[in-house]
Amino acid sequence: MAKRILVAKGRVKGTKQMQYWTGVYAREHATRLHDGKPDVCYDICYKNNGKLVWEKVGWGSEGYSPGLADELRNNRVRAIRHGEELPGEKKRAPYFKDVAAEYVKWANENKKSGKDDEGRYKNNLAPRFDDKRLDEIGPLALEKMKKELKEEGLAPATVKHCLVLFRQIFNKAVSWGMYEGKNPIKGVKLPTVQNQRERFLSYEEADALLKELLSRSQFTHDMALISLHCGLRAGEIFNLRGQDLDFRNEIINVADTKNKKGRKAFMTQAVKEALQARLPEKPSEFVFTDKRHHEEVKHISLTFTKAVDKLEFNKGVTDRRHKVTFHTLRHTFCSWLALQGESLPTMRELMGHQSYEMLKKYTHLIPDEKKKATRRLEASLEKARRQITST
Predict the structure, then answer these.
(1) What class, spelled out in words, does domain 203-365 have in CATH?
(2) pLDDT computed for residue 361 by the predictor
(3) Which distant-in-sequence residues (6+ apart) come within 8 Å of 145 by Cβ?
């Protein structure tokens, strides 16, 4: 290759000093001719991410000149300064903040937990990853975040939610065609969460709670009654509309469920009477409405907490798994089903679980069929002995 020589514009007027095109070089070909002279190839150089980059511009025989080479170099320098990709350069991974912005917008439009995702992103992910490109974030950075969040006092469930959110944002970047790399979360072990409810109400405690709620608020009492007798989640109760109630067959069509799959719940007489009294004028209207603000209910009233406190259900209790909350009512419903010997398939259908995994915590309450079988065998053996003795 011929030696590169910095291209001169000419002499500076009034001096012997030469003026050059910055970063523009020329090299003559030994045998290739143009207009009877050795053909000249122009090259440019510039720095990108601290590295010197050489780029071939073209030959004089192809119409290139020092001026064109200089113009091209200036375009490259401007593109680098403003973070733009250079032609022929490998497509760079997007910044985490750009993908996260698209994800938050999507989540708010498609997920009930969209606001929760947005909050976790702003508080925990953004400060750590916003200014990094996706290919700059590895398992070690996620392990560091996991450790820091734990040291900040966040519960294992919250730390897990943050890691899962990162995984979802990253996966969306791939599915949306914004990135083609591997998700670094695959190399990170998620925290073990032990937040399954252990506490459920006895029949006497449930009656006492409903009675206390009724003395305070018919509205909150009816919500608690539906959860306790039918196993509905708070959000499922909030989303009930007139069109979801089938009084003839005593069925509640639960449409807006956690797993997006509808199911049927069955009314007890008490639930039927409560819902009949609340049936809205239009089928499309909500059964429970925040009359003060004329909108859908979004939270369980503090009336519930005050009733629980009055009954001292949580007195001296520090483990959240043993505290009575509104969700305890749904847990109580399933516990009662287990205690009366209902089958796992029946419990799964009534609770709306996609798998049996969530029902493991109730199996110890189900009457032991193996023990019953042993007792039946013992009775058969005893009967056989009596028959032999009598003969």
Answers:
(1) mainly alpha
(2) 66
(3) 124, 125, 128, 162, 163
